[in-house]
Predict the structure.
Amino acid sequence: MLEIKNLKATVADKTILNGINLHVKKGEVHAIMGPNGSGKSTLANVLCGREGYTATGGEVLFEGANLLEFSPEVRAARGIFLAFQYPVEIPGVTNSYFMKTALNAVRKARGEKEIDAIDFLKIIKAKAKEVEMPEGMLNRSVNEGFSGGEKKRNEVLQMAILEPKLCVMDETDSGLDIDALQIVAKGINAMRSPNRAFIVVTHYQRLLNFVQPDYVHVLSGGKIVKSGGKELALELEKKGYGWLTEAVQPV
Amino acid sequence: MLVLASHLSILPPGAPIRMEEKAGVLHLTVPQGEHVTLIEKFQRRDPEPYTTHSRIALKIEDNARVTHYKLVLEGQHADHQSSMEVEAGKSSSFTSNVFLMGGESIRNTIHVRLAGEYGECQLNGLYIGRGKQKIETHTLIDHQKPHGTSHEFYKGILDDEAQGVFDGLIIVAKEAQKTDSAQTNKNLLLSPKAKARSVPELKILANDVKCKHGSTIGQLDHVQLFYLRSRGVPEPEARRLLINAFASEMIELIELDELKAALLPCLNLTTSIRK
């Protein structure tokens, strides 16, 4: 589904990614771990086409197409979703209007019929229930005045509505207490399917207790320095990142 | 609805308002304790150049309340100037919602004198300029007596080569202790050639007051745009959504459906979709 080959990227003229290779197949969950500044979030943002994150080398193929050529909205229509580390507040646009606009934009781009207001209401109410979001929050401005946990739940709600093929979760666990973490993890697990892949970017092992990855990769200095199964995350939890990163970043 | 002049109407129809025209100025008096809505709608849409001049002097007696709407939807070569001088009595209230959209040159002037204790004043406005439109707002709120409150909030959206000016002065007289006043002006520039000038000014002579003011001039938020696009909303639609969200705060202030309906087509900011 996703093939990243020797990807290099810069942010504000600074090289952050130094040749990433990663192959993600349908149905798989890949965790990307690593210390602060290792390039985890940069990788997530490059995949979703954020302005200011410039790919300078290598390639990214999504279902065989060159992903780096596409605008963010085209990537979304093709089935890529980024759950933001810091979800954005949009005063004056209600949550449900935003999601209806997004869903219909994506459907239109795929040549599917738009969903009318009544059917959409049914969909959003059902999905909101899954992530335990009170219906009242659907009529509030997008993320405005939401707590950290509510914002992350709102990301999972958007993901559930758009039903992407590849979900990129950028530090979705940051700033969550254990209850909020469990709700978010439940939402993610409910979406796991043989046709959908996840890239879960996280600093801590915590989220991976609830969302079990198939593969764990450790990023350091803009490169994957170690890959393994879910046991690697446990090892990192015990030993920290030092034993892996010293080798590539001599002090 | 009672129609007083071609552009002016009053609600409720039987409102006991007094009026008199003197030297080109329409003098209106809202008697004690009355609640009145005053609607100024300038909707002449002639394509050729013309001029509109309107001057109103409004006296709000003690304990009376006035809600004022002004819609300026003139033709594209019109020169529009309208002013309102308000004198507000004790425990009276004046709320004004102004929408400035059509006309080559628009000058909106509102002066409010809070001449009695516990006077309340709210001045809200939205101006949307395109092409080479020039839209100016000049306001003065003069707190003369104690315990007055005033809130002023004007927003501007400027595209193409349009120019917007907000010039707002708030005076708090020495006698006007316990005044509570806030003034905000926010501008959204949609094109590199659009211009906004914001001149907020406070003149405070009393020493026990709460006053604040602030103004911003900015562009569409790139992070918000990316957020919308990352969910599949194409860029032109994402821009339109954010522009309408900026304007909606002011539109929501309108309590008369009929006015909202007159305004909504003018808000169709579909031209504002360039990168």
About this structure: DSSP finds three helices and 17 strands in chain B. The interface with chain A takes residues 222-224, 226-235, 237-238, 241-242, 244-246, 248-249 of chain B (CB under 8 Å). The helical segments of chain B are 222-230, 235-251, 257-263. Residues 270-275 of chain B have pLDDT under 50 and may be disordered.
